[in-house]
Amino acid sequence: MFRRLSRREWAVVAVGAAVSLVALAVAYVVLPQARRWTERETRISLRSEQLARLEAVLAQEASVRETLSALQRERAGADRRLLSGGTVAVAGSNLQLLLNRYVAESGMELQRVDAVGQAAGQGPLRRIPARITVRGDIRGLVDLLVRLQRAETLLAVDELRASATPGPRGDVDVITASIGLHGYARSPEGEG
Questions:
Q1: Which of 22, 43, 108, 133 sits at a 20 to 30 Å CA gap from 117?
Q2: For all residues of the chain together, what is the average pLDDT?
Q3: Residue 93 has pLDDT above 90, yes or no
């Protein structure tokens, strides 16, 4: 069959075979090699970026450790300002003891101290509410409020109601005050 072909036809067949071989070489050799080369270059570029970020993190290690230490010290200081107790009930009892002490130190007379309701809040802190009713003079009430504001534990006054009883000369003799407040305690383990 090939013997009957003219020179021109042989040239066409040879050129067609050469083009086919080049096309096959490009499709099965050159393109896969180029794809592998591009993927390799991309991986090298990504690894270089990762290495640069890792070196930047390592260069900041001392700064990160210092920041972490500062945050841990700050948290330890904040933990000292929370009511102590393994449970919310114990923390509420500690809040009542603290309030009794502040009332006594301020020279006021404690009429009543109540845990208002259930501890509220989600997450690492529980809000422990309380209400106290005290009786005394204006200096004692101011002293009590200052003690609550500067307490060694974190306390927040939510409500203050005061009424005065006039004395024999029309001046204020006795002040009765009701103070709603709350303290904070760390949530028991396993909660929040």
A1: 108
A2: 84
A3: no
